[in-house]
Amino acid sequence: MSHIIEKVKDAVGLGHDTVEMAGRKVHTTGYGLMGLTWKAQPQPAAESIATMKAALESGANLWNGGELYGTPERNSLHLLREYFAQYPGDADKVVICIKGGLKKGQLVPDGSMENTRRSIDECLAVMDNKKLDLWEAARVDPNTPIEITMRAANEYIKAGKLGGISLSECSADTIRRAAKEVKISAVEVELSLWETSIFTNGVAQACAELKIPIVAYSPLGRGFLTGQIKSLDDIPKDDIRRHLPRFQPEHFEQNLQLVHEIEKLATKKGCTPGQVATAWVKAQGRKPGNPVIVPIPGASSPGRVKENMVDVSLSSEELHEIDELLKSVQISGGRYGNAGGSLEFGNSPPLQE
After folding, report:
1. I need a surface site. Which of 30, 81, 105, 220 has the fewest CB within 10 A?
2. Which residue blocks in 94-202 are alpha helix, DSSP H?
3. Which of 31, 69, 83, 156 is catalytic?
4. Most confidently modeled of 10-14, 160-164, 223-227?
5. For residues 87 and 284, what is the distance between their CA atoms, to the nearest angstrom?
6. Burial 310-330 (b: 16+ CB within 10 A, else e)
7. Residue of 228 and 58 predicted with greater confidence
8. Domain architecture of the chain: domains with CATH
C-alpha cells in the first residue's frame, strides 16, 4: 500500500489538490464530526446524516471522528454506522479517521498495548468490522512509550483491519519516535489564525521532513474566527467553549481584535471570515519547507458545510497582510484548561528494552 503524499489536480480541472493518506486520496478540506455527537444535547441523527451527505457531495471525503466524541454508547462510530446503513454505496468513498486510545469512558490517555487493542477492536465492532482507514492516538500517554502504542496498532495494519495510523496533539520527538516504528499516515494538531505553535515547536518541521500530512483541527478557532461569536451570550449554556480559557471574559475582547481585522479582509474579498481563515491554513501547506495541511472544519448543517468547502484564494499580498496582522495581534488565553493543557504536544517516556 502506497503511503506517499501526492498532489494531483482534481478531475474537473479546478486546480484543487488531493492528498494521499494510507493509500487513499482525500480532498484538501476534510470534515470534523466532533460537534455532531459531543454535545449535552446532540441534534437528531437525521440532521447529522443529512449534513454528512452534504459534506461528501461537496468533496469533503476525509471524515474525522472519535470514540471519545460522545459516550461509549453513542459517539462518532455509532453515527457513522447509521450513515452507512442508509448510504451503503458511500462506504468506499469516505476515508474515516477515528481518534481513540483513551481509557474507556474517560478523557485520560492510555497508550498501553492492552488499551490500544481494546480501542481498535471496539471501533471495528461498532462499525460492523468495516476496515478503518485510520486509527489515531487521540493524545500521547505520558506514562507509556509511544513505541508500545504504535506496535500494538501496527498489528491491525498487518492483519488488514486498519489502513494506517495517525497521531494527535504530539510533540516533534513523539512524531520522530513513532515514525521509526510504523509509517505515520497523518498528524492531527490544532492550527488556525489564533493557534500557530506547530511552526515554532518543531512539529511542522518534523512532519515536513518525514513527508507526513498535517490534519488541522479547529481551523476556525472553534467557531470564533467565523465572526458569528461576538459575546459569550452567542455560545450555548452547555457548550464546552464556555470552559475554555480563550473564551473567558478576561480574554474575549482581546481576541476579538483578530476577528475584526479578518472580517475587514473578508468584506473586501466578498467572502466570509471563516473562508479566509480556512484559506490561510491551506496556504501554509504550500509554503516551502512546510508539510501538506488538510483543515477539517466541523459543521452541523448542510449550509455551513457548503460554506466551509468554498475554496477561496489568497494572493501573496493578502497572505503578507495576514502575517503582519498575526505579528501585531496578541492572542490571549490558553487553548485548554489545566488537565487538557498538560497533554498539549505530548511526550511519552523513553522505551526501555
Report:
1. 105
2. 113-126, 146-158, 172-179
3. 69
4. 160-164
5. 35
6. eebebeeebbeebeebbeebe
7. 58
8. 8-226+273-314 (3.20.20.100)
Q: Which of 57, 63, 28, 232 is nearest to 133 (CA)?
A: 63
| Helix axes 316-328 and 249-269, enclosed angle (nearest 10) | 160
pLDDT of residue 128: 83
Give the span between the Cα atoms of 93 and 87, in whole angstroms. Answer: 11
CA distance 63 to 70: 16
Q: Which phi and psi angles does 212 have, rounded to 5°?
A: -110, 125
Instruction: Mark residue 40 as left, alpha or beta (left: phi above 0; alpha: psi -120 to 50; beta: remaining).
Output: alpha
Q: What is the pLDDT of residue 91?
A: 92
What residue type is 336 in one-letter code? Answer: Y
What would the DSSP string read from start to end of 273-337?
Answer: HHHHHHHHHHHHTTSTTPPPEEE--B-SSHHHHHHHT------HHHHHHHHHHHHHSPP-S-SS-
Distance CA 107, CA 103 (A): 7
Cα separation, 213 vs 210, in Å, equals 9
User: Catalytic site residue 69?
Assistant: yes
Q: What is the mean pLDDT of the chain?
A: 90
Helix (H, G, I), strand (E, B) or coil at 50: helix
Q: How confident is the model at residue 262 (pLDDT cuts 50, 70, 90)?
A: very high
Q: Cα separation of 31 and 304, whole Å?
A: 11
